[in-house]
Specification:
Length: 222
């Protein structure tokens, strides 16, 4: 029994998730910490979402969920246009709230908020950026949300549009990695990431599949 969610995974049939980080934004290009600031897609991100629509065509999903932040929500709306499914808002899929360093680049945060920047670099589990969300609280929110979806759609496929931080938590849950361990895996925009949740807990199937994004690159640079 998961003490946070109250869900017993042994009572569930295995649910398969396709988790997708939103398409690119201008702040991604600037390496600016977006957190829960509501930044929209740029032209490249819109093209990535259209490429996703082609990659997802013919796939079967029981439900589609998305973070309600525009960069994820609009990625979902474009990418699922041909699936015949409504997108349901899921606040549990929002990015982590980075408090006093939201809107800053890492270099700006190092100068303006050195204390917060130090904790950010160290991935301090209980630090909440003064006005934000601790890594422990964030991970609990994310896993509770995903496991709730697994319970609602037990034994079926779920498509979810979200953010890099959420994917980071999901990857660590599926590979038994500590939240404060350095990240050694990629989180590309608009890649397909497949995981499953069932009697054995979380399991990674495939990660960072970007094959469909060659089309998006051609549309932007051609």
């Amino acid at each position: 029994m998961n003490p946070t969610t109250g869900i017993d995974p042994t009572a569930l049939r295995t649910t398969r998730f396709c988790l997708i980080r939103h398409g690119e934004t201008d702040w991604n290009g600037e390496k600016r910490i977006q957190g829960q600031i509501d930044i929209d897609l740029n032209r490249a991100g819109q093209a990535q979402a259209m490429a996703l629509a082609e990659a997802l065509r013919g796939q079967s999903f029981a439900a589609v969920y998305s973070s309600d932040l525009r960069r994820a929500w609009n990625t979902a709306q474009i990418a699922t246009a041909g699936l015949g499914l409504a997108v349901s808002p899921a606040p549990t899929l929002r990015e982590r709230h980075f408090g006093v360093i939201q809107g800053l680049t890492a270099a700006e945060a190092r100068l303006a908020r050195p204390h917060a920047h130090g904790h950010h670099q160290a991935r301090t589990p209980h630090y909440d950026y003064e006005t934000g969300e601790s890594l422990i609280a964030f991970a609990a929110r994310v896993t509770a949300g995903l496991e709730g979806m697994a319970q609602r759609h037990s034994g079926r496929n779920v498509l979810a549009f979200t953010h890099g931080g959420v994917l980071d938590v999901a990857y660590r849950a599926a590979t038994d990695r500590a939240l404060d361990a350095p990240r050694d895996f990629s989180l590309p925009n608009a890649a397909c990431n497949w995981l499953e949740y069932g009697a054995a807990g979380w399991r990674l199937i495939s990660w960072a599949d970007c094959r469909h994004l060659n089309q998006a690159l051609d549309e932007v640079t051609g």
